[in-house]
């Protein structure tokens, strides 16, 4: 029955409020039990919306968050448990917002369902998304495990176990279609493909659940030749498989798992008992989320868009040791001398690169870091020599932007032996031993290629060609470089399902304006009337190509639709002039993030494996409004 509250009820409610405020001041961690907004000054109030508090891995994440929050004098955490219901989690986020939190940390149940409410929250407060990403980019920072790396590591363990003679492997996957399932599986397969003697003969799906894995394996073992190794995407399913093999009286299979949690039948216990040969820690990101929450609320510079965390292997040899497995990835420093950073740049091939160099120099100066800068002049040998000279000079840390992906093992090994950590800036390397570099800071080049293709698909829907066929010319960046390889792949894979999109020419112009102009001129000599679209791996090449298109008597941006990557100011000017249709952002402003990571490292914080910058897509329609705000 509706009516006015009774006086006794008001007294009780007031009592609860007083106690709640008291708790807020004296207890760091609170369960959220009321919808009431917090008016009082409670320092930094973090809302944690947890998908569930029943999975051991999530309990561990929550515990990490609560413990780490205690490291900050001014921080409080309120926690909600969605009990694995997406609808409930949507409601939880709204309750946390109404409660007056300063920042939301959310580990979503379902990426799709949670996306709108995360977008809603992000309109008013910073949001950190943990573990499972949401769709789009409406959040401040994503933190999650590097699942492809975890998959590759499981594959490496398989090859170590099976050696040259090889053997057969079964894979137990988590929930079909979920990002960790796909990524761990991709990583495992990448590694297995390197070894012709090793064959992946069965893949089973068991939804991350022990019992499901046990049932599936019992059925399979009864009818198939048994494998040498079973790789399970988590330890719980590995345990289910172990139970199934025991029941079947089979004892000679080796098991590899993922998660590495303490507790009954957790990965660590299974390793101690000799049931698992190895498990790979799947970091929860709780600690990092709190550290970044603090930095975000303190408005520190250099906050990235995505962070992927490091894994580590646990075996019978390491499970009981106190050796710090992350020792090479963090390094508390008592020395008060300025940090000495050796930086080997690619060269000065583009506007992007010039801005990147300036960003690094400015940020080093602002952070009080002594920078020794060497320009590699587009040559890998020069960059290798630069790194060797940094080693001779005994710098504290090295960073470099590798001109190409391969060929770095020997020099990085030398840096490792000299005890100097190496940070990859802007471009990644393709090497087997991930311990040769501490972290990567830069863009997601694959995604940039995909974004260019997605924009093109939607643009061409509005502007169809008369025959429905879309002939594309691609201008590629430096051969063998990460941005050229990945942008190409991202673009091609996104268009693969659309047979009317045809890449008729794909030529190298090395990211240079002049080469973009000259290569396009040559292409136009034979293809002039066939080209509908130009996709250039950077703006400089697109701007060069525009000159040749005009010289050929065509209208760039109209006769040929042009999409490129970088989003430099000159690209915006070309869009305003109607000569370029879209540019996909790739930020060169990596300096502040690089310096932050270096300082974190010397403050003793663990470095993630990959730190990805925040980027957007700019179609011509927004160019005039956006140009005045561009910083490069
Ligand atoms: O590695 C980043 C790429 O290198 C930029 O997109 C390009 O302009 C630069 O030269």
Provide a quick synopsis of the model.
With 632 residues, the protein is an alpha/beta fold.
Describe the structure.
- This protein is an alpha/beta fold.
- Helix content is 41%, strand content 20%.
- The chain has 20 helices and 25 strands.
- Helix 11 links the parallel strand 14 and strand 15.
- The N and C termini lie far apart (63 Å).
- It binds alpha-L-arabinofuranose (AHR).
- Alpha-L-arabinofuranose (AHR) is lined by residues 349-350, 352-353, 426-427, 483, 511, 538, 540, 565-566, 586.
Write down the Rg.
27 Å
Number of strands: 25
* Unreliable stretches covering 5 or more consecutive residues: 1-31, 33-39
Tell me the strand percentage band.
Answer: 15-25%
First CA to last CA: what distance? 63 Å
The averaged pLDDT comes out at 90
Helix coverage percent of residues?
A: 40-55%
How many helices? The count is 20
Give the overall form. globular
- Biggest sheet details: 13 strands, mixed
């Amino acid at each position: 029955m509706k009516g006015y509250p009774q006086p006794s009820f008001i007294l009780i409610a007031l009592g609860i409020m007083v106690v709640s405020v008291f708790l807020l001041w004296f207890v760091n961690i609170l369960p959220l039990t009321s919808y009431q907004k917090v008016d009082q000054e409670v320092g930094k109030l973090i809302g944690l919306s947890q998908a569930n508090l029943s999975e051991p891995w999530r309990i561990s994440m929550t515990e990490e968050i609560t413990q780490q929050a205690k490291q900050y004098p001014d921080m409080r955490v309120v926690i909600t448990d969605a009990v694995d219901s997406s609808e409930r989690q949507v409601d939880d986020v709204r309750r946390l917002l109404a409660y007056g939190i300063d920042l939301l940390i959310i580990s979503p149940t379902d990426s799709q369902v949670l996306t709108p409410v995360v977008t809603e929250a992000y309109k008013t407060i910073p949001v950190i998304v943990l573990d499972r990403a949401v769709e789009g980019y409406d959040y401040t920072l994503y933190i999650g495990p590097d699942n492809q790396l975890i998959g590759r590591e499981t594959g490496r363990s398989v090859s170590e176990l099976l050696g040259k003679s090889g053997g057969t492997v079964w894979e137990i996957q988590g929930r079909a279609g979920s990002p960790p399932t796909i990524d761990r599986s991709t990583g495992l397969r990448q590694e297995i493909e390197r070894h012709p003697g090793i064959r992946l003969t069965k893949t089973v799906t068991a939804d991350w659940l022990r019992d499901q894995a046990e049932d599936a394996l019992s059925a399979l073992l009864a009818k198939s030749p048994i494998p040498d190794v079973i790789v399970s995407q988590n330890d719980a399913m590995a345990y289910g498989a172990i139970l199934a093999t025991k029941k079947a009286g089979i004892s000679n299979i080796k098991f590899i798992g993922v998660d590495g949690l303490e507790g009954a039948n957790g990965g660590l216990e299974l390793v101690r008992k000799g049931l698992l040969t190895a498990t790979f820690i799947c970091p929860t990101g709780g600690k990092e989320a709190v550290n970044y929450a603090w930095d975000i609320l303190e408005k520190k510079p250099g906050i990235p868009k995505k962070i992927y965390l490091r894994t580590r292997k646990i075996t019978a040899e390491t499970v009981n040791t106190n050796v710090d497995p992350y020792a090479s990835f963090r390094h508390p420093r008592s020395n008060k001398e300025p940090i000495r950073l050796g930086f080997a740049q690619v060269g000065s091939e583009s506007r992007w690169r010039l801005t990147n160099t300036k960003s690094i120099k400015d940020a080093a100066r602002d952070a009080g870091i002594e920078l020794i800068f060497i320009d590699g002049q587009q040559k890998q040998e020069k960059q290798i020599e630069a790194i060797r000279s940094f080693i001779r000079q005994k710098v504290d840390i090295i960073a470099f932007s590798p001109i190409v992906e391969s060929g770095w093992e020997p020099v990085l090994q030398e840096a490792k032996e000299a005890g100097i950590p190496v940070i990859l800036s802007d471009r990644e390397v393709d090497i087997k031993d991930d311990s040769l570099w501490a972290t990567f800071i830069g863009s997601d080049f694959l995604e940039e290629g995909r974004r260019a293709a997605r924009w093109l698909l939607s643009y061409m829907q509005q502007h169809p060609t008369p025959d429905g066929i879309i002939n594309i010319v691609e201008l590629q960046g430096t051969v063998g470089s990460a941005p050229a390889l990945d942008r190409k792949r991202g673009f091609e894979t996104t268009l693969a399902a659309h047979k009317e999109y045809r890449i008729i020419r794909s030529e190298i112009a090395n990211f240079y304006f002049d080469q973009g102009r000259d290569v396009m001129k040559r292409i136009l000599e034979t293809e002039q009337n066939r080209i509908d679209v130009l996709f250039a791996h950077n703006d400089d090449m697109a701007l060069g190509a525009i000159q040749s298109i005009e010289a050929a008597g065509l209208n760039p941006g109209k006769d040929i639709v042009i999409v490129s990557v970088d989003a430099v100011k000159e690209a915006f000017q070309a869009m305003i002039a109607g000569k370029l249709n879209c540019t996909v952002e790739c930020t060169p402003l990596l300096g502040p993030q690089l310096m932050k990571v270096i300082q974190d490292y010397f403050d003793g914080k663990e470095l993630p494996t990959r730190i990805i910058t925040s980027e957007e897509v700019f179609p011509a329609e927004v160019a005039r409004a956006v140009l005045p705000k561009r910083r490069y």
